[in-house]
Every structure is written in C-alpha cells, then in structure tokens.
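Go through the following before class.
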Amino acid sequence: MQIARFAHGDNPRYGIVDGDDLVVLKSDPLFDSYETTGERVPLDGARLLSPVIPRSKVVALGRNYADHVKELGNDLPTAPVVFLKPNTSVIGPDDPIVLPEWSQEVHYEAELAVVVGRLCKDVPAERVNDVIFGYTVANDVTARDIQRAEDQWTRAKGFDTSCPLGPWIETDVDVSDLSVRSYVDGEQRQDGRTSQMIMSVHEIVAYASSIFTLLPGDVILTGTPAGIGQIDAGQRVEVEVEGIGRFGNPVVRR
C-alpha cells in the first residue's frame, strides 16, 4: 500500500494511492487509522508533499556501499558512520533544493529511507519489521566541500532543503534487493542495489535504536551507492527506488 501526503486546497491531507487517484484518509495513518472519508482526488490534481515530516529526527548512515566509499577515496568504516539531519532539512517532491551560499560543491545521493512506525529502543534485528511503518525514497543532499573541510558533518548534511523525501510511503515491499538510482536532467547517474549495502536495513534500524529512542515518523537513511556527483542551479535531480517510486526537485541558488 502506498500512503501519500498531499495538498489539495489549504491543508495537508493523506491518501492511499489507488491507480490514478488518491483515496482520502481522515487522518495521518502513522498515528491513527486507515479510515477513509469516501473522497477521491485525482493524482494529477494533487501536489505531493514530503510523505512524512519527522517530529524528532532523520537518522542517516554514511559509507554503507563499498563502491561509494571507494569513489570518495575513503577506507571502509570499521564501525557504522551515523549522523543526524534536522527535520527542517526535509522537503517534498518538486520543492526546490536551495544551494547554500557557503558551498560551491553540492552533491546528490539517492537512498532508500525507512519510516519508523512506533516508539522503540534497543530493537533486535529479528524484530525490526515490527517497528517499521514503511519505506520511502530520499536524496541525502550534501555540501561535499564542507564535508571534506570539517570533521563534523552537521553543516554539510543538515542545511535547509538537504533531505528531499518522496513520492510516498510504501508499506509492503521487500527491500533486500532493490535498485537505487538517480538522474540529473534525465541522465542516469547512479544505479546500485540495496543488496550491495554493507549493513542491511534490519541491522541499520537495530543499530540506530541502540543509540537513540526512535519515535513514530522518524526517518532512517540507509546510505547511497556509487555514482554521486555535483548539482548546479538550473538543473533537476531525481531519485528512485525500485518498487517504491521516483520523484525530483529543481536546484536553485538564491
């Protein structure tokens, strides 16, 4: 089932994707039920929003694909590399990625993202499915020059508009071997598979929950495959995960 958050009128709403329509839900199913209003909205008449705005945090895993580690000239990590992105970094489909004035080298990073469905802590890997609400697609936009210059990744990874999410949440998909791709102005740049991840989704969620209490709506980014590169103002970058969906954002500099 695909759950979208969308604008049709003044307020954000939630709907189940059903062919070319959205079946409107009475409330946010992450915190309530799947009860519908009986209304249907054409998908092409709705503006898709970020499928979730984390109330707490975006947890991200760095250097989780060996080929990506190699292309950046880094060594394979001896322990998981975890960082946070604030919820103010989150945007949705077609929202502009705003290049920060203090960076001259901003990169795209297509990723599978996990949406946490319940409060949890210290979840064993074999029980991770119990705490996952679903999956979405992310672009971990990164100021690469700042990442190289600073020991902490907060500024490089956490600026406003650096975490596009979309197009919706898929609640029923096997994520063990899905393609992860990115495109710039329609040209494919990345083409990896989740089976290439150093840590699996279950291991990532279990590890993250050993550090932080995870709350409903928290998002966990699982790393990006090789093929990252720079984006510039005037371009459009799209990210896609097989079985979930594809969306894009224009790139601007203000």
Q: What stands out?
A: The first strand starts at residue 2 and ends at 7. The chain has two domains: 2-48, 58-253.
